Known about the structure:
Helices cover 6% and strands 41% of the residues.
Amino acid sequence: MTTAFVAAITTASATATAAEPLPGITPRAETPVLHDDDAGGNADADDPAIWRNTADPARSLVIATAKEGGLRAYDLDARPVQSVAAPPAQGPDDAPGRFNNVDLVRGLKLSSGAADLAVTSDRGHDKLRFYRIDRDRSGGPLTDVTDPAAPRVFSADQDEVNEQRTAYGLATWQDKASGRSYALVSQRERTGVALLELLPASGGKVTYRKVRTLDLPSSFRLPNGTTWSPCAEPGELPQVEGMVVDPANGTLYAGQEDVGIWRMRADLTGTPELVDKVREYGVPGVYDEETEECEAGADPGYGGKRITADVEGLTLVHEEDGDGYLLASSQGDNTFAAYDRELSDRNEYEGGFRVTPAGGALDGSEECDGAAALNEPLGSKYPNGLLVVQDGHDAPGDGDRPATNFKFVDLGKVMKTLDD
């Protein structure tokens, strides 16, 4: 999450929300709370992925990042199945491993045979990490198969890694034409996105090579002839985190947090197009060193109407007829926006919803960082598919301790809400 605007923009967002209330959908389950403090192992829920067990869908898994807390695997009751620690720091003055985003690759051909993989961005080391998924392995379903010689993604050396302008957002993609598998990785505090080809290494390990990079804009020409850049801490550019690739047509959707949602070719060729803008687009701001916040100026009215910065977790809902939705977390107002998946409809807005409390012990989702949807039957618990969303403020919590987790939502409820 980046520094947010205050004052005028907060008021404007609240007014827009009050004028157009969105329907609420309650979760069915939640994972145990994670605490981002020393006692909790600095574990902070961030981004989920859903792995479907084709042999027994009821025994599918949700695999999710916990930042310095590593990686978690949960069953469909939201119970922990395995916890994988992030790698330690290289040296006493270096950053520890920090898993930011996760996605899946099906059937990657390794030297030991084809395997399903969980791929995660390790922001602390500026690398990708790979975990083979074997549901019935006695030690837990996840096994680290990262090649020790895998290169850094953006940094030339450890000094650059320690600046933490490193691997951040992540989406995987399997190119139908070539059969090759890729990861698209964004850079923290920069606008860059890198395309990495995933490759087998010796001993059943996995590595990658950089194919190309693309830099999204950091400043924008407004209709009144002025140039605007989102307000941020000095030296920071508007970064991308949430990303997803539509496998049907190789389209990458990327959420530039303080700007909006971009659509582009997943091979990073061609010209990106802005699908929708955040409400704060074009609003001037001045960073206050004392408060570490941006004080917003007058809104010139150039922003969008559906999403409030930050735009975060992006995920796709596929339907059998080729239709479906692109879902985006509108973190600033605790909502989710749905866009038509079909390019012929230019990803037009289709509606939105909130994930609201199901009761005192099961709250909703606030300031959602990551989301994952799977529109396939997952046994008797989720016969209509599953949506998993991060909750940035789990309640009732534990005093003043930072508390996060993941909510499991019946995707059938989401589809009914959007189709009504």
